[in-house]
Specification:
The protein is α/β, with parallel strands linked by helices. The protein contains 19 helices and 18 strands. The strands form 3 sheets. The chain has a 9-stranded mixed beta sheet, with helices on both faces. Strands 15-14-13-16-17-18 form a 6-stranded parallel beta sheet, sandwiched between helices. Bound molecules: adenosine-5'-diphosphate and alpha-D-glucopyranose.
Length: 503
């Protein structure tokens, strides 16, 4: 089968979070199963620079200022017209070639995409994201008419959610497209793309899509709701989250429409790309280690503490690592409420993250008050993220909700014991440690109570004192395997089901 992946992120080209890891890793696994996969991404400034680097810095160095070097790209399509209410925009398709058997195309519309941030500054949103991702969706459909219409469009999150909507409304009569099926994967129901009602008209949809049973929600135009209503099948990234989003507590006001589509909704747990995330081979680490020989982890710990300016920490003091987008979703408000009490414990905290100013400030101030015990680096740094995974003893993820979560799964492989809130994928992937029977992989707490979080941290600190038990706990996690082979087969079944329904 031919599957088109439409998403706003994909490693190694553009990433703010786990969506990029998934869109980078699942397609090659599907290719291994014999499928043909094409990925369409916006041609962001970061993508352009990456391709320039690949093509050789020398060539781009010869250009004058302001010259994007358009003449040098390998254009698959020079210009696609995307109409809006009172104007047209023009999108070029750059052929990114095949990587691990997966075909990449980049949609170039410089005035909308040639910028550094994917969505907006500081965890915020550009006001014209409706136009950026509305255009993206329509351009994907148009591009496939030239470059190959797939059996299934696999679209991800709100940014790609208008593809199924266009397909079944504006393009419903298009003979080239009307056999194609659609699957929407919801990576995060907390981000939906809400815009004013007039968006309907600006994106040239018929007004009849703006009703409660379609895209309208509390008098806004809701991208994700459109995807949910119009896709043939829906998936989300863990079984638990698939259940949770059908409830008022987690459904972000989409629980009703999700419940109405329950029969077509599957929870497929994300896998991990172990070619990138394995302490036995990880190129970012000071030393390698395996479950059998854990000795290299000590060196990784020293290297990590050095990177955070905490060289003097005694060996007996465990290190809690954090790598995260700093967003409300991630539960750092719970941490803030017990921060001083955490610092009273014999423990070090190292945090790597960027995002909402509120949380950046919290971490900065916490580190300022306890310079020997808490350190934070406010930036996006992939190499340092690997070092935190390897060099920490524990990994903290107190998320308010977590559709899947990848960092806790990476942590397992790195023998870094997760402390998590029992929600979504965190609950599905981490089992509480029972020292008496040597069973379990981490520490979990329920509710939204900071005391419960502190309780989980205290249980971890206590368990850390028993070296033998702790080593067993580390090894339990390291033995867990969350590769992409299984999930890829589950997705292939979903595609087959969609294709059956469409034939
Ligand atoms: P989410 O997608 O909600 O952000 P996930 O746990 O699924 O959460 O994925 C987060 C991904 O982003 C991981 O690969 C993590 O290592 C990476 N990441 C998040 N923040 C940073 C950062 N500041 N520097 C480097 N990597 C980061
Ligand atoms: C989202 C979720 C995260 C998930 C990731 C990849 O960003 O917040 O839990 O792991 O997507 O599916």
């Amino acid at each position: 089968m031919h599957i088109v992946f439409a998403a706003s992120e994909c490693v190694p080209f553009a990433k703010t979070g786990g969506l990029a890891d998934v869109v980078g890793a699942l397609p090659p696994e599907l290719v291994k199963l014999g499928h043909e996969v094409t990925v369409y991404l916006p041609f962001y400034a970061g993508v352009r620079e990456r391709l320039e680097k690949e093509a050789g810095a020398a060539r781009s160095g010869e250009r004058g200022e302001g010259d994007r070097g358009d003449g040098e790209w390998n254009w698959a399509v020079r210009s696609i017209t995307v109409p809006f209410e009172h104007y047209n925009r023009f999108v070029g398709v750059v052929d990114g070639g095949k990587r691990e058997g997966v075909q990449f195309y980049f949609l170039d519309c410089p005035e909308l995409f040639d910028r550094r941030e994917l969505y907006g500054p500081k965890g915020g949103e550009f006001p014209n994201n409706w136009e950026r991702f509305g255009l993206y969706c329509r351009a994907v459909l148009e591009a496939t008419k030239v470059l190959g219409v797939p059996d299934v469009f696999h679209v991800h999150d709100w940014q790609a959610s208008l593809i199924p909507v266009y397909l079944r409304t504006t393009y419903a009569g298009d003979p080239a497209l009307n056999k194609a099926g659609t699957v929407l994967t919801i990576h995060n129901a907390g981000y939906q793309g809400w815009y004013p009602p007039a968006t309907t008209q600006r994106l040239l949809f018929p007004w009849d899509v703006f009703t409660k049973d379609k895209l309208e929600q509390f008098d806004t135009f809701n991208f994700l709701k459109g995807g949910i209503v119009f896709s043939d099948m829906l998936t989300t990234v863990s079984r638990k989250y698939a259940e949770e989003i059908q409830t008022a507590e987690f459904g972000e006001k989409l629980d009703g429409v999700l419940l109405s589509r329950a029969a077509d909704l599957r929870g497929i747990l994300n896998g991990v790309d172990y070619s990138q995330w394995d302490p036995a081979t990880d190129g970012h680490l000071a030393a390698h280690y395996t479950p059998k020989d854990l000795s290299g982890k000590k060196e990784c710990r020293a290297d990590l503490l050095h990177a955070f300016g905490l060289d003097k920490v005694p060996e007996t003091m465990p290190v809690i690592g954090i790598v995260s987008r700093f967003a409300t979703q991630k539960g750092f408000d719970l941490v803030a409420r017990i921060a001083e009490r955490i610092s009273q414990r014999e423990v070090v905290v190292v945090a790597l993250g960027t995002g909402e100013p509120l949380y950046e400030r919290f971490f900065r101030e916490w580190a300022f008050r306890h310079p020997d015990q808490v350190a934070v680096q406010i930036r996006y740094d992939d190499a340092l993220a690997h070092k935190v995974e390897a060099g920490s003893d524990m990994f903290l993820m107190p998320s308010r909700y977590e559709p899947c979560g990848l960092n806790q799964i990476y942590s397992l492989k790195y023998g870094t014991v997760p402390i998590v809130r029992a929600t979504g994928g965190l609950d599905d992937t981490i089992q509480e440690w029972y020292a008496e029977i040597g069973d379990g992989t981490g520490f979990k707490f329920g509710g939204m109570d900071p005391e419960a979080l502190l309780g989980a941290i205290d249980r971890a600190l206590e368990a850390f004192q028993d070296k033998k038990g702790w080593t067993q706990l580390m090894r339990n996690g390291m033995a867990r395997h969350y590769g992409w082979e299984g999930p890829a087969k589950e997705y292939a079944e979903v595609y087959a089901e969609v294709a059956r329904r469409r034939s």
